[in-house]
Amino acid sequence: LKEENAVLRSKINKLQILSETQADKMRKLEKKLEENKIKEEKEAQDLEAMVQHVEQNLQLMTKRAAKAENSAAKLRQENAQLQAELSSSRLENEALRAGQAGLAAARQNAEVALQHLLQVTTSSRASIRQLLSGAESLQLIADLLKSIDRISEVSEDGQ
């Protein structure tokens, strides 16, 4: 009976040690699980912050593109007006040539109108380039948002 008690005590000691080992493992796993949860929450917050930043940039780019479009429209209108002035100046120039009176003044007016027209044309082209650049930036941001959505879907599927 003593021998049997000793064997049982030995088994109980082994079981207690095994139980403590398993409890330690469980505590470590719970701690690791909590760390992983915290890490995932931080990553989710970082991703959300990045999405918000991209959305803000998208709104800013949209405003800039709208402003550039308005500017381009104004420049086109001014360009048309200046072309009409140039045409009028040319007609006046021709009339002055025909009458041979004030030829130098008409040439100067035509030259000034032409220079102004060239400046507006150059400015219009730059604005149109800027508008195209803004549109390309908006497309890039849209593509980035699509890829973020795909990454989120893959991340959720992987879990």
Offer a quick outline of the entry:
This protein is mainly α and 159 residues long. The protein contains two helices and no strands.
Report Rg.
39 Å
State the end-to-end distance: 55 Å
Q: Helices and strands: which structural class? A: mainly alpha
**Number of E-state strands:** 0
Q: What portion of residues is helical?
A: over 70%
Describe the protein in words.
This is Endosome-associated-trafficking regulator 1. One of its GO terms (cellular component) is centrosome. It comes from Alaudala cheleensis. Residues 12-92 form a coiled coil. Belongs to the ENTR1 family. The structure is a single chain. With 159 residues, this protein is an all-alpha fold. It is built from two helices and no strands. The chain has helices at 2-99, 103-158. Helix 1 (2-99) runs antiparallel to helix 2 (103-158). The model has no long low-confidence stretch (mean pLDDT 86).
